Amino acid sequence: MKTLYLLALALGSSMAAQTITFKGCYNLFDNQNFVFTKSGVDAYNKNIYITTPVDGQPCGGLGSCEFKIQWNNALSRWEFLADTGNGTFVNPNLIYYNSTGNSASSRPPSNTFGLWVENTAVTIGQCGGNLTGTNSTMTGDVSSSSLATSDVTKSKIQVFPNPVSDIIRISGIDNGQTIQIYNVDGRLVKSEAFDQKVDVSQLSAGVYVLKVSTKNFESHEFKFVKK
């Protein structure tokens, strides 16, 4: 798989259509724009976006592709998919995924919010790494602010101390289900059942994202520094 034309999420929302425009992964997809249009909403109230036209996107080694952005609830992440099946997406290729940004929103996160991680198993590292504001653009119907929870609810939640040496504490969440911690590269380094006390003593010093998923499918994310 040589050139995999992919990322160009440009979104210009209007009263009639909600779109995302993307440009990126130049080694595989060249320096071009791809336009995604909202095609529906899934069972978890997450928007689904598919390139328009559905068929005919140049996709390098894959030939003619269709692209899709959707929520993967089983893995709690947004995914950027490429398909060669005329829009069926039966066995699509996962190009990028974002598991740390805006998981509570109905819209996918921008390329500078959270961590859009390149799936090098498919791209063979030809996209130049994770999406950033310097190697890609994503505009339109994307979210760049955290958490689709109210400010009132958010203000009651606290994660402390920060920075932390050994135990980080969580208050204000009484229906937590799981805890996940990601490093700055988007790699999952810790996952366990929810507890108000989380042992981070074994983590290396650095910046991390703590993600708390609740039993009613909400998600709360916080950055913290491990000393």
Automatic annotation (TrEMBL):
Pfam families: Por_Secre_tail (PF18962). Residues 159-219 form the Secretion system C-terminal sorting domain. The keyword Signal applies. InterPro entries: Secre_tail (IPR026444). Residues 1-19 form the signal peptide. Keywords: Signal. This is Por secretion system C-terminal sorting domain. It comes from Chryseobacterium carnipullorum.
